[in-house]
TrEMBL record:
Keywords: Membrane, Transmembrane, Transmembrane helix. Pfam families: TspO_MBR (PF03073). Belongs to the TspO/BZRP family. This is TspO and MBR related proteins. CDD domains: TSPO_MBR. The chain crosses the membrane at residues 53-74, 86-103, 109-130, 137-160. One of its GO terms (biological process) is tetrapyrrole metabolic process. The keyword Membrane applies. It is found in: Membrane. GO terms for cellular component: membrane. The keyword Nucleotide-binding does not apply. It is a multi-pass membrane protein.
Length: 161
């Protein structure tokens, strides 16, 4: 465990706000790239198990909160650990890139390849976070489950369309 003096680290509440802002930026960029996502989604040929479009907003809101708190818990425990938070940042960037690829560019195949990389980066983040904080790692489990489901949905929509 890395020890930091209180003079070198921001207060916990400020750091949590930083993690929330970083994740909010990911959400907003994705949202801007998919302003018409609900209409597009409704127009796709979808598998019978595809969820309704209204479900995505609430699910992602909860997931983004869990992602931010997870990163913050590791920060509280160990500071900004280089490998763990670098991979955390990579998965945030991959998360942000998927929506513009899928909805903005309509590149379903490329989006599928990208979401596989996202899935792998979430697994790597979870493994690295578990070394610092088991609760932080467990907070990523719903995110991994949802991205697993989203990957299957991406593949199905790509295949059907």
């Amino acid at each position: 465990m890395t020890v930091h003096s209180s003079r070198t680290r921001p207060p916990a509440a400020l750091a949590l706000l930083g993690f929330l802002v970083a994740v909010a930026i990911v959400a907003v960029v994705g949202g801007l790239a998919s302003a018409s996502a609900a209409e597009q989604y409704a127009g796709f040929v979808q598998p019978s198990w595809a969820p309704p479009s209204w479900l995505f907003g609430p699910v992602w809101t909860v997931l983004y909160l869990l992602i931010a708190v997870s990163g913050w818990l590791v920060w509280r425990r160990s500071g900004l650990t280089a490998p763990a938070h670098v991979v955390y940042g990579v998965q945030l960037l991959l998360n942000m890139a998927w929506t513009p690829l899928f909805f903005g560019a309509g590149r379903f195949g490329l989006a599928f390849a990208e979401i596989v990389l996202l899935w792998l980066s979430i697994v790597a983040t979870t493994v690295l976070f578990a070394r610092h904080s088991r609760p932080a790692a467990w907070l990523l489990a719903p995110y991994l489950a949802w991205v697993t489901f989203a990957s299957a949905l991406n593949l199905a929509i790509w295949t059907l369309n």
